[in-house]
Amino acid sequence: MSIELCLLFFLIALMYSSAGFGGGSSYLALMALWGVDFQLMKSTALICNVVVVAGGVYHFYRSGNLPMKKAWQLSLASIPLAFAGSYLPLKQQTFFLLLGIALTTAAVFMCYRLFWEKEYVPDPNRTQSVYGYGIIGGLIGLLSGMTGIGGGIYLAPILRLGRYDTAKNIAGLSSFFILVNSISGLAGQATKGQLILDYRFALPLILSVIIGGQIGSRFSSAILKPRWVEGITAVLILYAGVRMLIK
């Protein structure tokens, strides 16, 4: 196991956890650059997602920033679709093509937030479309299961564009969404017999993200500037995504 990869996983968990994300897109980007087997990538990324956001869900709930009714409305369709997505047979070439598109799109979302999004203010008078957001959540869940991305990196910008809730509540909703989709995706892989775990490879990475996630959920938001974090991760994800598409 590469010490450099463990350190990078630790830093990603540290940075992402403060915003309610698990870091699955960046874990996949790094493992793709390291040439890791694609089935091992999916399983490892989802497990890392779970251990990072589980603590975040607890902290957001305790602080009153996780409205459970909205969380279930967003997740009810995504959970079975994440399971179905992980069950779909994907050849390696198809997986990397899909992952390249997913990572490039994620980088675009992050760049939008960095350069074009003005000060965020939720709209308390706006009538929310439960079914509309449920459908969006379901589609993101399907993508989550197919690629090993928890989906929060897509959900959060959409909720912000719709002024769905406060910024802290959206972070809590994203954490919950990532957690349930990642568990559902892992269940689909296990049912299909494709939950691939190499403990010599995965265990150091899992320990790295547990430590990084616990530190990040408590302290990193006070130390790290969110724009720096998003800028660095957007560049990494964009590079990995475009590199996959070119290949």
TrEMBL record:
Coiled coil: none annotated. The keyword Membrane applies. GO terms for cellular component: plasma membrane. InterPro entries: TM_pro_TauE-like, TSUP/Inactive_protease-like. It is a multi-pass membrane protein. It is found in: Cell membrane; Membrane. Belongs to the 4-toluene sulfonate uptake permease (TSUP) (TC 2.A.102) family. This is Probable membrane transporter protein. It comes from Chitinophaga agrisoli.
